């Protein structure tokens, strides 16, 4: 199942309710599971990004629907990256065009 890394930034609304972030994260994980997306990890970070989600979904469509719901709540903005493990990367890079 494809794995995605989503970087999060708090919006002004999310920052005002920072103390409730862990509760919101738990609620998101439950909602994600119901929609077919697995939350592999959730981390709060210091620096340019406020948090990181590691997500797994059978299809990109399922993932996108889940993230649209997350951003629609207004507490975070997101940037999502498709990730590859070593085996997947080796398989892709060993193919030659042509």
List keywords for this structure.
alpha+beta; globular; 4 helices; Alpha-Beta Plaits; 98 residues; 42% helix; four-stranded antiparallel beta sheet
Structural features, described:
The protein has one domain (3-94): Alpha-Beta Plaits (2-Layer Sandwich), CATH 3.30.70. Helices cover 42% and strands 32% of the residues. The protein contains 4 helices and 4 strands, in the order βααββαβα. Strands 2-3-1-4 form a 4-stranded antiparallel β-sheet. A hairpin with a 6-residue loop joins strand 2 and strand 3. The longest helix has 14 residues, at 21-34. The protein is globular and about 50 Å long. The mean pLDDT is 95.
Q: Quick gist of this model?
A:
This protein is of the alpha+beta class and about 100 residues long.
């Amino acid at each position: 199942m494809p794995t995605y890394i989503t970087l999060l930034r708090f919006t002004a609304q999310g920052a005002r309710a920072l103390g409730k972030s862990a509760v919101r994260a738990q609620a998101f994980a439950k909602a994600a599971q119901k929609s077919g997306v697995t939350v592999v990890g959730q981390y709060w970070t210091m620096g340019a990004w406020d948090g990181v989600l590691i997500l797994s979904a059978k299809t990109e469509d399922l993932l996108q629907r889940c993230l649209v719901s997350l951003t629609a709540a207004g507490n975070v903005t997101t940037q999502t990256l498709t990730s590859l493990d070593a085996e997947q990367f080796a398989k892709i890079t060993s193919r030659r065009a042509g």
